[in-house]
Amino acid sequence: MVVPSLKLQDLIEEIRGAKTQAQEREVIQKECAHIRASFRDGDPVHRHRQLAKLLYVHMLGYPAHFGQMECLKLIASSRFTDKRVGYLGAMLLLDERHDAHLLITNSIKNDLSQGIQPVQGLALCTLSTMGSAEMCRDLAPEVEKLLLQPSPYVRKKAILTAVHMIRKVPELSSVFLPPCAQLLHERHHGILLGTITLITELCERSPAALRHFRKVVPQLVHILRTLVTMGYSTEHSISGVSDPFLQVQILRLLRILGRNHEESSETMNDLLAQVATNTDTSRNAGNAVLFETVLTIMDIRSAAGLRVLAVNILGRFLLNSDRNIRYVALTSLLRLVQSDHSAVQRHRPTVVECLRETDASLSRRALELSLALVNSSNVRAMMQELQAFLESCPPDLRADCASGILLAAERFAPTKRWHIDTILHVLTTAGTHVRDDAVANLTQLIGGAQELHAYSVRRLYNALAEDISQQPLVQVAAWCIGEYGDLLLAGNCEEIEPLQVDEEEVLALLEKVLQSHMSLPATRGYALTALMKLSTRLCGDNNRIRQVVSIYGSCLDVELQQRAVEYDTLFRKYDHMRAAILEKMPLVERDGPQADEEAKESKEAAQLSEAAPVPTEPQASQLLDLLDLLDGASGDVQHPPPLDPSPGGALIHLLDLPCVPPPPAPIPDLKVFEREGVQLNLSFIRPPENPALLLITVTATNFSEGDVTHFICQAAVPKSLQLQLQAPSGNTVPARGGLPITQLFRILNPNKAPLRLKLRLTYDHFHQSVQEIFEVNNLPVESWQ
Question: Can you give the residue ranges of the GAE domain (predicted)?
């Protein structure tokens, strides 16, 4: 006995009544079998009913591709009930990936020319939903004719279809230019709103259309002024705001037309001031209109007073109780801080207050804006606020906050002592969240401030005595104690309270660091080197230091073991040279904001040194032999040419200290991606102490007019290489060259294999999701050889 096919309503009730997923699948499989049989039999009377059931099954997520051809048959039918279900099925089951969608082009063309309004509406809806580029080119003349039809119903749908066509095929702009000017005189709300949208799409995609529609700016200004003063129609007013949707769309179009055009901007200045001052902000609809007005003022060539008014409006938004409004205000101010810095500075106290928001997205935006507002005149006050925020901010914001404070301090530090104090506070508060280069930057800063050596070593000693869990802080403190331990013991620093420290306390603290389970291998290396350096700076017996060094000669960590063995050999065989080897490290050139001045000074010094003869000492050749202590090779040793006898020359490779010789020639940067103003650049560094390691800094910049949000960069390398991705500095790249996103890649290439990168970028731009996957095969040879 054959079970009869169910009606659509009965099918819905039976599916909803299924208690388990297995029962639901059983009902759907049986009904799909009936639908297939009906399609094979070619029943024309009930075909639309069967397809309607199949569309419901498709909406539940089950396969329904076998109904595609039935959609074509129903569309070709002369009955309206068949066409209605057929067009609906085409919109749901067909898209550009299926060649079958091209088969309905003739049917749509015939229906558009029939003159029956409901059928024309169905055809236009289908074309605007799934029309491909080929269909748009073929049917553009028919849609153009319908733009001037007497029926508002058809004209509105034709305008929306034209918008889809322009998005698919921008070269069709010339087809739809003539009717738009006439459509602007319409009083029908839907037609006028659609026309504004169509003109906006034309201007965004065609420079010729942009020049053409700049002539209608006075007409657009008149329409918007009428909306603001007299209203359009009461049925389209929301919360007392006259047709906010139409106002927003007109403001967006004016923003495009007035951008980089003096005459158009002058025409709309008075109107924008009127909208900005007369719009009611007690309702969300009014805030939406006001926000679009602010964006328009900032994008066009508006008067200076009008721009200040726009920034003040955003400042009022920061005081709004709605978090969404505060978020868009912070985002907009972040975009404006580069062009209108002084106007945004007036709202700095309000921005700082937003740091205390419990909402993570608001506090992150407030942090980005606060960092952008830091300058040389307010750096002390802003750093106090940011440091207070760093102590209480959520863990996911600490890395961004710490990095931002360090960069701002390096750029705007009023004095070196203030700079050192600021970095120490960051390392003490959030040492585990700072960037990898924080340790090297602080050691270079302290090394270059000779007058602050005693102050720095005592501050760091006190911080280390209180907490040894912050690894970057411990590394800097160990380095500083090793370099300037004699100043610590002398106790002649007048800038802080006197502190009596004896040798045993210093040695005990470094031994505590070595024995702590929280210490990283790199931290232990710093502490061991500090102990070794103290052997030449302390006046007491070195037996305790020698004992500690000999213990780590059997350490499981190879790097630490090698250092201990070399230091122990230095004690046993070359004790007479130990003082010369362990002298204070020379200064290393910095890459920072003051690099230009330092480069000029070093260039002048290099020119003077070239003319002077370099003295040689017999001890230099003996020091070279020390470098081959562990080689185990007997026989003749070929000595390299005489080296600079300074202690920072050949001996740096032996001690492997944080300060390294001048780096080799820099590896050129590489631009690997560019799309719609979004760029991705790679910069390379190979640390001299570890040539197998390559540090790649990925910098994402955005020169477009829209923010890039939810930015994620992922990478892959060949299996012979090891890749470690550090956390990026953020996930939003502000428009117009705002603060870029940086991310560090650490690639270990011990075999010096040719380097290839595969990158995947995902982000949102102009309200669209973008995903790009590409390979980078043109990396500089210096990055891996």
Answer: 665-780
Q: What is the pLDDT of residues 242-258, one digit of tens each?
A: 888 999 999 999 999 99
User: Of 193, 194, 202, 199, nearest to 224 (Cα)?
Assistant: 193
pLDDT, the chain, mean: 83
The one-letter code for the residue type at 455 is Y
Q: Work out whether strand 693-702 and strand 678-685 pair parallel, antiparallel, or are unpaired.
A: antiparallel
Which of 362, 364, 337, 367 lies closest to 352, judged by CA?
Answer: 367
The CA distances from residue 781 to 36, 341, 682, 755, 785, in Å, are 62, 42, 14, 8, 6
Rg (the chain; Cα; Å): 36
pLDDT in tens, 166-210: 998 888 888 898 888 888 888 888 899 999 999 999 998 888 899
d(CA 462, CA 493): 14
The token pair at 3 is 């079970």
Q: What is the pLDDT of residue 189?
A: 85
562 falls within a domain: no
CA distance 713 to 757: 12
d(C-alpha 293, C-alpha 306), whole Å: 11
**Entry pTM:** 0.63
What's the pLDDT at 142? Answer: 92
Host domain of residue 726: 668-781
Give the model's confidence band at 698: pLDDT under 50 very low, under 70 low, under 90 confident, else very high: very high
With a cut of 50, say whether residue 480 has pLDDT above it: yes
Lowest mean pLDDT across 94-98, 193-197, 331-335, 581-585: 94-98
pLDDT at 652 over 50: no
| DSSP state for residue 729 in the 8-state scheme | S
Residue 254 to residues 183, 249, 553, Cα–Cα distance (Å): 17, 9, 74
Cross-sheet strand order for the sheet of 693-702: 670-675, 678-685, 693-702, 741-748, 722-725
Burial class of residue 692 (count of CB atoms within 10 Å of its CB; 0-12, 13-18, 19+): middle
Separation between Cα atoms, residue 417 and residue 380, nearest integer Å: 13
- Kindly tell me if the per-residue pLDDT of 781 is higher than 90: no
- In-domain check, residue 636: no
* Number of separate domains in the chain: 2
Q: How far is Cα 719 from Cα 748, in angstroms, rounded to an integer?
A: 11
DSSP letter, residue 104: G
Cα-based distances in Å from 271 to 218, 244, 267: 10, 16, 8
Measured CA to CA, the distance from residue 762 to residue 713 in angstroms comes to 7
Alpha helix segments (H runs only) across 94-206:
105-112, 117-130, 133-146, 152-168, 173-183, 189-205
CA atoms within 13 A on the CB side of 235: 3
Residue 86: per-residue pLDDT = 92
Q: Which residues contact 580 (CB under 8 A, 6 or more apart)?
A: 619, 623, 647
Q: Is residue 700 part of a domain?
A: yes
Provide DSSP, 576-588.
Answer: GGHHHHTSPPPP-
Boundary (domain end) residue, out of 512, 544, 576: 544
Provide CB contacts within 8 A for 193, sequence distance 6+: 245, 246, 249
Q: Residue 578 — pLDDT band, cuts 50, 70, 90?
A: confident
Query: Which among 523, 544, 565 is the end of a domain?
Result: 544
First-to-final CA distance of the chain? 78
What CATH code is carried by the domain that includes residue 757?
2.60.40.1230
pLDDT band at 55 (very low <50, low <70, confident <90, very high): very high
Whether 238 is covered by a domain: the verdict is: no
Element at 299 (helix H, strand E): helix 284-299
SS3 sequence of 508-558: HHHHHHHHCCCCCHHHHHHHHHHHHHHCCCCCCCCHHHHHHHHHHHHCCCH
For residue 671, what is the enclosing H or E element?
A: strand 670-675
